[in-house]
Amino acid sequence: MSEGSGLVKGLEGVVAAETALCDLDGAGGRLAYRGYDIAELARQATYEEVAHILWRGELPARAQLDGFTAELIAARPIPEPLLAAFRLLPKTVDPMRALQLSASLLGAFDPDAADNSAEANFRKALRLTSQLATAICAHHRIRLGKDPAPPSKDLGHSANFLFMLTGERPSPVNVRAFDASLILYAEHEMNASTFTTRVIASTLSDMHSAVAGGIGAIKGSLHGGAGEAVMRTLQEIGTVENVDAFVERALAQKRRLMGFGHRVYRGGDPRAAVLHGLAEEACRQSGQGMWFEMAVKLHEQVNRAKGLIPNVDFYSAPLFYALGIPVDLFTPVIVAGRIAGWTAHLLEQYQDNRLIRPRGHYTGPGRRPFVPLEKR
Ligand code: ACO
């Protein structure tokens, strides 16, 4: 496009779709899924209930929840060829690459793979949510040279995740904290990865392809990859006493501080406020209060010096670490939460689709004649 550009760099502030899923008030620092405040959901709901709200619109009644939970449990196993593929991968492979491969391969075995009807997509959303959790844990254990821990038939979604990761039944307090963090990650309006999934679906491609694209988008350090980067920063700092010198150095080097800043929230990210409390409890209970104290000091110093707010990925880092999640699994865990939101957006996109096809503002050379090879 060469006439009047109308360029909005980074699509800041551009409204790209209608959605009934997530009410994000950036100025007020408030966030609700279908009208339910996220702090209340993190405190009282389960991830299964949140997935039901996102996909079906309402909180499930007891009998609905029982049936829905049974379907999620039944969908947990992953096909043997996916486990075989994990065994063929280099042990050093980035777990996000293994996860992206999982989304594609699960599509190859999904009975509804090419069916974009609402009911088929609901079934795929449910299967992907259960199966990606299994895939993350199975790949992790295989890369450690262990056998995968088969999914439980009775534990809830989050308890089962921690069980499949470690092979041991997790404590109720760890399950609660992990479940709350999956809830906080479940949905976030038109963020980069969700937008990616919607762009892919808008071509009438299928849900597994859209999710594989979303996984590629979320892994970058400006998006979900920031959580892992926060933990690596805390490890680099090493002790609470080193925070001041680190911040001074980082500011002098104009370094981008991971876990800080947000495109939409100005006053504060409401998810970070909830995660702050969860991280404090988990760090103290696991005898790793140092990471929390370091994070709080870093937050204070960066906020004072640059006015930057911590985003969702800041306090989730010490929280996940205290829960025993390996640092390179932080982003896969974020996907394990976000899958419910991605797939809910995909249900919306297929329901009221129009190809997403923006324009580019052309800045290259003017028209010129082609020069044959022998004359160049
Ligand atoms: N560290 C240092 N400076 C920052 C940071 C940061 N984390 N965030 C923003 N800034 C500064 C920029 O340098 C820029 O300053 P300038 O105008 O003097 O050049 C200004 O604030 C605006 O920054 P942009 O990058 O243009 O803001 P944008 O809205 O595009 O980016 C983003 C938002 C990507 C989240 C940014 O704040 C960032 O890079 N944060 C660190 C990575 C991170 O934590 N990402 C996870 C975000 S949550 C999620 O998953 C989407």
Q: Summarize this, please?
A:
This protein is 57% helix and 3% strand.
Describe, in plain words, how this protein is organized in 3D:
The protein has 16 helices and 3 strands. It has 376 residues and is mainly α. Helix 2 packs parallel to helix 16 and helix 6 runs antiparallel to helix 16. The longest helix has 26 residues, at 118-143. The two termini are 28 Å apart. Bound molecules: acetyl coenzyme *A.
Write the layout of secondary structure elements.
Layout: E1 22-25, E2 30-33, E3 36-37, H1 38-44, H2 47-56, H3 62-74, H4 80-88, H5 95-109, H6 118-143, H7 157-166, H8 172-185, H9 192-202, H10 207-218, H11 226-237, H12 243-252, H13 270-285, H14 289-306, H15 312-322, H16 330-351
Helix pairs in contact: 1-8, 2-16, 4-6, 5-6, 5-10, 6-7, 6-16, 7-8, 8-13, 8-15, 8-16, 9-10, 9-16, 10-16, 11-15, 12-14, 13-14, 13-15
Bound molecules: acetyl coenzyme *A.
Acetyl coenzyme *A binds at residues 10, 191, 222-224, 226, 256-263, 308, 311-313.
